[in-house]
Amino acid sequence: MEQTYTAEEFKEKMYSNLKVRPSDSVILMCSIFIASIGLNMNSIPIIIGAMLISPLMTPILSIGLALSLYDMKLLRAGVRLLLVQVAVSLTVATIYFAISPITYASNEIIARTEPTIWDVIIAFAGGTAGIIGAQKKMSNNIVPGVAIATALMPPLCTVGYSIATWNVDYLIGSSYLFVINCAFIAIATFIGVKFMGISQVLTKQDANHKKINRLLIGLSVLIVVPSIFSATTLVQDSIVRTGINNFIEEEFSEAIIISQDYQKDDDLLLVTTTGKRLTEEELADIESRLPDYGLHAIELSVTQVPDLNGLSGEQAARILQDYLESRLQQFNLFDSRQIDLEDLPFELQNEMN
């Protein structure tokens, strides 16, 4: 018995899967609702569960197949189903986040707002595996695995969160991630169908195939360029923060670090220490070694708090008050008596506690 669909059977299967069924819409609504809760609660297992039941892969694979076969009828059906699914998903996600009492952006939400070149690679690899798995007749775990790897649902949920909270930056980032996933799954499907010989069986080359190939290449470049820039920024930021941690650990090894704050926009590293007091010459010498850690453009500002163990309670309280007032000024909060503690940044709350 054949374990894979023939080219004709595979095409018919795709056509039959592109019908807009109420049952599939209900499954999609459940999936997006579960994924929204998972993102809201910062729960990875819940998010994975939502992706397992998501039917979003089907129209994207169909779009890739249609482009490979130059089948405009199949392409229109795939695009129509995808648009319906996206509309349903955004509606459910937006309504959920609009009524959810948890309004802050969790780490899982933030993670879907800065796509990089690695997301492009994952989507392409996932699309390649997805089209291979979709051609198999026997039940397999390839397509569910691709659904998890490419993570189509979380970006859509994040778009819904962005709409509900009017966050334009998150809206742009999460929408871009969803476009990356859809585009490169479809492109990988297009290439996979060519390599598997399905398109050669079902179609003959015509005048449109070169135009479609050029269109896909142009679309790929257009989508990839911003992701490369984002990845470069992410790598550079990671290198800087690693350098800062190494610098603090090695150059202030004899001091007690109360806090460290890197202000990226100003290229300023703020360090507050206690314990051994450093002279101006020692601080200048430490600052001169910043380039050794790859921190060429960063300026160092050190605030030294006297060792509180050797002070009276009144002296310690006064020093801490002065320190907290300086920290408040850094956050543009000038009158601490009129500020609710809950309105302060989390780091500063810990310091005041």
Automatic annotation (TrEMBL):
> Which InterPro entries has this protein been placed in?
DUF389
Give TM regions: 20-40, 46-70, 82-104, 116-134, 146-164, 170-193, 214-235
Pfam families assigned: DUF389
Q: Does the keyword Transcription apply?
A: no
Record has Transmembrane helix as a keyword = yes
**What's in the keyword line of the UniProt record?**
Membrane, Transmembrane, Transmembrane helix
Which protein is depicted?
Hydrophobic domain protein
